[in-house]
């Protein structure tokens, strides 16, 4: 444990996990927003929108996240010059958020779409019968029920997102996996201690998160 | 009841693949008239009912409501539907909303009415169908008969020009059928224009102005209930009535 009594090392550890939390938070918002829009597109009556949604899911769900993050750095930033912040570290962070969001959105979309299938057709028919437009039917009746049905799988997707956030380390952000590599490099005799502390931190945060989503799923479930 | 037609179907045809579910149907429903549609399963009566607010699009023919042909899609169609209430066999109350919210949602979101006024109207409608004391519950906490009465209140909250009932009592336990029919009968007496697809012959007898008998997608026979039940003209109707009225 003496590795972490050193204030520099402790700072590396804490900073690393703070980056993970920030990546997870922003990635969650991005993935939920984009994923919900994609799901709406995939059930819409407009063929172009359906095609766009399907293409997005097929491209991003089947591409390794590491490649997407690399592309965000080398493609968007280095080649196309997309700069999201003047601060190099923050720029890498935001590039990582973009990569995590577009990738995770594909999974969120498919979860929500399966949730839409759990909503009986009669619910949308009743909404249309009182004069709701397609958009009102979707946002007031179908999506709220679909969302409640997929709280538990969304929880799994967000837990995966949190762990996937370590991949942003490959483009230089000093998040937890980079921090761990850094500490192991300078404390070669403490590999196991360092590894278990980092892995344990993820477990301590994520295990209750999983149970939290399970509890929430029960609480929000729509009774039929 | 005036003679002015509110709903007019002319030469309406509808196919489900090779199946001809509506075969050249002509029907006119006057303002304030109560038309009960009966017939064997698969005769196309539910499809007929659902075609009137375009939940089922038709393949050919015309349907006019209140003098205007049904719009094909979009906002115009949504506006038309807001003027035609519909009550389904399986109630279809919004499962994630309370009883009161179910009744208030349409007027607030579709008609953009003020929630204070809608609340008052919704409570008086729930009171009318006898469920005001359940207003804060969710649909799954109510019996089938109660849910169907809420569904009627939800349709009435839009102050529709006509109400369509698609087998409203077919999914109910026998002892709950009466409470729903009571509400429908009182609506009929007040002059609401109604198209009712049902197997409840008692309701057809005492509440309908006209009975329409359908078989194999065709509108076979129509007559006032007393006449229809006493003297059916077509063999198809005689056969149908002999099967259901002998028990």
Automatic annotation (TrEMBL), chain A:
The text of the family note is: Belongs to the binding-protein-dependent transport system permease family. HisMQ subfamily.
- Domain ABC transmembrane type-1 spans what residues? 17-217
Give the transmembrane region(s): 12-38, 59-80, 92-112, 150-174, 194-217
Organism from which the protein derives: Paractinoplanes tereljensis
Q: One Pfam family, please name it.
A: BPD_transp_1
Alphabetical GO CC annotations of the entry are: ATP-binding cassette (ABC) transporter complex
> What InterPro entries does the database record attribute to this sequence?
AA_ABC_transptr_permease_3TM, ArtM/GltK/GlnP/TcyL/YhdX-like, MetI-like, MetI-like_sf
As for subcellular location, the record says: Cell membrane
Give GO terms for biological process: amino acid transport
* Topology relative to the membrane: Multi-pass membrane protein
The identity of this protein, by name, is Glutamate ABC transporter, permease
Give one GO molecular function term.
transmembrane transporter activity
User: Among its keywords, does the record have Transmembrane?
Assistant: yes
PROSITE patterns attached to this UniProt entry: ABC_TM1
Q: Which domain of life is it from?
A: Bacteria
Automatic annotation (TrEMBL), chain B:
Question: Which molecular function term from Gene Ontology is one that the record holds?
Answer: ATP hydrolysis activity
GO cellular component terms given for this protein: plasma membrane
- State the EC number(s): 7.4.2.1
Question: Which InterPro entries does this entry report, sorted A to Z?
Answer: AAA+_ATPase (IPR003593), ABC_ATPase_HisP-typ (IPR030679), ABC_transporter-like_ATP-bd (IPR003439), ABC_transporter-like_CS (IPR017871), MetN_ABC_transporter-like (IPR050086), P-loop_NTPase (IPR027417)
Record domain ABC transporter: where: 7-241
Q: Name one Pfam family in it.
A: ABC_tran
Q: Write the protein's name.
A: ABC-type polar-amino-acid transporter
Provide the taxonomic classification: Bacteria, Bacillati, Actinomycetota, Actinomycetes, Micromonosporales
């Amino acid at each position: 444990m003496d590795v972490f009594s050193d204030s520099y090392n402790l700072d590396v550890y804490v900073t690393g996990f703070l980056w993970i939390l920030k990546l997870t938070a922003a990635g969650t918002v991005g993935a939920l927003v984009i994923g919900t829009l994609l799901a709406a597109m995939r059930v819409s009556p407009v063929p172009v929108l359906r095609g766009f949604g399907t293409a997005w899911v097929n491209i991003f769900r089947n591409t390794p996240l590491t490649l997407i993050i690399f592309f965000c750095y080398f493609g968007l930033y280095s080649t196309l010059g997309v700069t999201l912040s003047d601060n190099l570290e923050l720029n890498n962070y935001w590039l990582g958020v973009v990569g995590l969001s577009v990738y995770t959105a594909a999974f969120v979309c498919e979860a929500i779409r399966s949730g839409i299938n759990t909503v009986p057709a009669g619910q949308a028919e009743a909404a249309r019968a009182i004069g709701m437009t397609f958009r009102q039917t979707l946002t007031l009746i179908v999506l709220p029920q679909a969302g409640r049905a997929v709280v538990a799988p969304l929880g799994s997707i967000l837990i995966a997102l949190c762990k996937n956030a370590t991949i942003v380390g490959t483009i230089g952000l000093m998040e937890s996996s980079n921090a761990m590599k850094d500490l192991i490099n300078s404390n070669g005799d403490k590999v196991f201690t360092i590894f278990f502390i980092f892995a344990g931190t993820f477990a301590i945060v994520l295990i209750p998160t999983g149970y939290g989503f399970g509890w929430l799923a029960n609480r929000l479930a729509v009774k039929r | 009841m005036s003679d002015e037609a509110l709903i007019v179907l002319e030469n309406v045809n509808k196919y489900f693949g090779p199946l001809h579910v509506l075969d050249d149907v002509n029907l006119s429903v006057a303002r304030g008239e109560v038309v009960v549609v009966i017939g064997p399963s698969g005769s196309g009566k539910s499809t007929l009912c659902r075609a009137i607010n375009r939940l089922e699009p038709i393949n050919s023919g015309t349907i006019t409501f209140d003098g205007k042909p049904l719009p094909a899609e979009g906002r115009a169609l949504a506006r038309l539907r807001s003027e035609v209430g519909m009550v389904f066999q399986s109630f279809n109350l919004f499962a994630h909303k309370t009883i009161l919210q179910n009744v208030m949602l349409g007027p607030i979101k579709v008609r953009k009415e003020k929630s204070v006024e809608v609340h008052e109207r919704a409570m008086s409608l729930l009171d009318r169908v006898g469920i005001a004391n359940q207003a804060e519950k969710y649909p799954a906490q109510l019996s089938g008969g109660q849910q169907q009465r809420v569904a009627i209140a939800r349709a009435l909250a839009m102050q529709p020009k006509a109400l369509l009932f698609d087998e409203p009592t077919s999914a109910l336990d026998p002892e709950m059928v009466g409470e729903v029919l009571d509400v429908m009968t009182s609506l009929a007496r007040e002059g609401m224009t109604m198209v009712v697809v049902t197997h409840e012959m008692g309701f057809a007898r005492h509440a309908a102005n006209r009975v329409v008998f359908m078989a194999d997608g065709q509108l076979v026979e129509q007559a006032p209930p007393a006449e229809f039940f006493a003297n059916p003209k077509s063999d198809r109707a005689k056969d149908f009535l002999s099967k259901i009225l002998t028990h």
